[in-house]
Amino acid sequence: MKKKIFTVTFLLLHTISFSQKLISRESDVKKIEENKDLFIGKPLSFLLNEIGPAIKRVMANPSVNNNSHVGNFRFNFMDEAKIKKVRNKGLAPITLVVFVKENFEWDLQSRVKDKETVWTNEDIKKYGNLTIVGFRTYGNIESDQVK
After folding, report:
1. Burial per residue of 98-110, b for 16 or more beta-carbon CB atoms within 10 angstroms, e otherwise
2. Bigger pLDDT: 25 or 121?
3. Domain for residue 38, yes or no?
4. What is the pTM of this model?
5. How buried is residue 72: exposed, middle or buried, by Cβ count under 10 Å (0-12/13-18/19+)?
6. Total structural domains within the chain
């Protein structure tokens, strides 16, 4: 009986510990660089599953070919209005840049008007299988405190 209780308790704690996301708030983004070995070579969707805060803005810099540069996505966890407030306070918004191996297309003109920089479920489906090759994070941790 004690063995069953131990097993059930162990499995429950094991499940709970793995169900928490690595990034639970904007200022945790640096953890991705610290744990980059977990993500390098994995699909973008794997990383996105570890991010708790909603991605509110994305910009992409696709590669035409990998000889000139590697394509990337720049993710922010605040919308344009909040980014403007943060910059007006002399801070840089927390940004996660994800470099991907494959070439991809990104055309702002073909995206929904006035929502060109909004990350959508369709984007996850379209770009989720791209392979991560690197990261860069920047911005002021204090920027997630700006109201």
Report:
1. bbbeeebebeeee
2. 121
3. yes
4. 0.80
5. buried
6. 1
